[in-house]
Structures are given as C-alpha cells and as structure tokens.
Design a protein that fits this description.
Elements: E1 4-15, E2 18-29, E3 33-37, H1 44-52, E4 59-64, E5 69-72, H2 86-91, H3 95-98, H4 106-118, H5 134-147, E6 152-156, H6 164-179, E7 183-187, H7 191-197, E8 200-205, E9 207-213, H8 214-217, H9 220-232, E10 240-244, E11 250-254, H10 257-264
Parallel strand pairs: 3-7, 3-8, 5-6, 6-7
Antiparallel strand pairs: 1-2, 1-4, 8-9, 10-11
Helix pairs in contact: 4-5, 9-10
The chain binds adenosine-5'-triphosphate.
The site of adenosine-5'-triphosphate has 10 residues, from helix 1.
C-alpha cells in the first residue's frame, strides 16, 4: 500500500464556479493526525467536503488510497428533530458494511454497545436524539464514526460547544484511532488544542498558507499571513473566475492575488 493516504494535485474546490480552496498540492501520510486550521470562511469545511467527494473539484485532483472513509460534518448541519433514537443514529455506522437495508447481527449489536460504552453513553440506546445535550450528541456521533471502521476519518469542528471533559475524552479516542493506523483530518478553531494534540497542521486562507509539523506551521508569522489573506478576501473579490485558457481548458484564476500580495507585504 502507498505510504500516503491522500495526494492532492492542484486541488481546487468551490461553488457555482467560484473557488473557495485554491490549487492545493501535497500529501497526507497514512496514520497521521492533522489539524485543519484557518479563519471563518477560509475553506476548511469545503476541503473536507472535497475529500469526501461531496463536492467535485473545479480543477485538480485528490487521490485517496483508502478502503473506507468516515465523515463527521459540523453539528449545525445535522437535523436533530428527526424522530430517531441514539441506537438508530449510531447503527448507521454499519451501512458501508451491511448496506442501508442490511440486517444488524447479534455481533453487530455487541459492537455497537461496546462503542457506546467507549464514548461514555452506556444505556443511552433508546434515548431520542432531541433529548441529548450537545456533548452527548457529539459522543453518539463519535460512536457512529467508530462503527464505520474507516481508514480515513474526517472531522469538522468536532469539539465545538462541548465541555473540557468531553473534549479530553474525544481527543483520547481520536489519538487511539491514529494509533491503530487510521488517518485523521480534523477542522479546529482552538489553537491551544491544535498545538497540544495535533502533530501536523494544514493552515488555510482559501489558499494554503503553511502545512507540516504543527510547531513550524502555527507560528505568529504564519497566523498573521493567514489573517492578512483572509482580510484581503472580501466576498466580492474573493471569488475565482473560471476562465478558458487558449487550449480550451478551464482555469481557475485567483483574482485576489494582487491584493494578497499587497496585504502580505505589510505584515
Ligand atoms: N454551499 C455554498 N454555496 C456557496 N458558497 C459557499 C457554500 N458553502 C460555503 N461557501 C463559501 O465558501 C467559503 C468557504 O466556506 P467554508 O465553509 O469552507 O469555510 P470554513 O473555513 O469551514 O468556515 P467556518 O470556520 O466559518 O466553518 C465561504 O466564503 C463560504 O461563504
């Protein structure tokens, strides 16, 4: 197997032909734990959606050398009013193995109970989802992720609005996954958490600012560069234009570049 789990080549993603992540190239090592950091609107969720295949690239590619992928979106994207119980949500983790209409075996049931125990939700099987606290919901989603038995796990702000104890428990689980050889990419806003627990960081400001070992990436200079790029990038000027090159191939042209250079020159 390839030592790399993901390989990006000029990977460019966006909406309605406008790029939100520009020309990303590089590789993610198998079994690595990477934080994806950046300001609001810097393209972090867009990147995860591109890796998960929910969003098709405008240009470039992302080669995933994996068997199974698990993607945990932001909680705000989930509908908790759906009349379902914890067991129904967590059992969805089996669908890649059993199919959507597949029967859950006794062994599956035991595995599910074990995963609920691992996230501290023993006995919660029959609780309706809308009765869970934010932290309990996040624990249930982590249990579902565990059941997916994926070799690439994408987490979008999994520690938002959960207390310190829940964060500590969930971080332990994530570290356990990478110890098992799984690769984890995690969108995070909390720089303290990033520095403390994530060996690798990818810092985005719609384009790549820096990527590598966390102490090398999370420097004051890089964070200032990221902020500078982001501030320069207002909604009007931030979009890429899809242009046709003379050979007829579409090309994503970041019209912000001159403004970025101007801002970067001042920081
Ligand atoms: N469905 C969509 N349609 C159009 N534009 C979108 C869509 N989703 C995101 N965008 C835009 O793409 C840009 C990047 O958004 P994205 O959600 O990836 O940022 P983010 O770094 O995850 O932000 P946050 O930290 O606020 O969650 C933003 O300008 C956003 O408004």
């Amino acid at each position: 197997m390839n030592d790399f789990c993901l390989e990006f080549q000029n990977f460019t993603l966006g909406y309605q032909g406008h790029a939100a992540v520009h020309h990303l190239s590089g590789s993610v090592a198998r079994g690595s734990l990477t934080a994806i950091a950046g300001a609001n609107g810097s393209g972090k969720s867009t990147l995860l959606k591109g890796i998960a295949g929910i969003l098709k690239p405008i240009s470039g590619s992302c080669a995933a050398h994996i068997n199974r992928l698990a993607y945990l979106p932001q909680q705000s994207e989930l509908d908790r009013t759906f009349p379902a119980r914890v067991i129904d949500l967590v059992a969805l983790g089996f669908w890649q193995r059993r199919g959507l209409l597949g029967r859950i075996t006794l062994q599956d049931r035991a595995e599910l109970t074990k995963c609920l125990g691992a996230v501290g939700l023993e006995g919660f099987e029959k609780r309706p989802l809308d009765s869970l606290s934010g932290g309990q919901m996040q624990r249930a989603l982590f249990a579902r992720t565990m059941l997916q038995d994926a070799d690439l796990i994408l987490l979008d702000e999994p520690f938002n609005a959960v207390d310190a104890r829940t964060i500590a428990d969930l971080v332990m689980l994530v570290k356990g996954w990478t110890a098992e050889g799984r690769t984890v990419l995690c969108v995070l806003h909390d720089h303290v958490l990033v520095r403390e627990h994530f060996p690798q960081t990818l810092l985005l400001a719609r384009k790549l600012v820096s990527w590598g070992p966390t102490p090398d990436v999370m420097t004051a200079a890089n964070l200032m560069r990221a902020r500078g790029f982001q501030e320069a990038w207002d909604e009007r000027s931030g979009w890429c234009e899809e242009r046709l090159a003379p050979d007829g191939h579409g090309h994503c042209h970041p019209i912000i570049d001159k403004r970025e250079q101007a801002v970067a020159a001042h920081v």
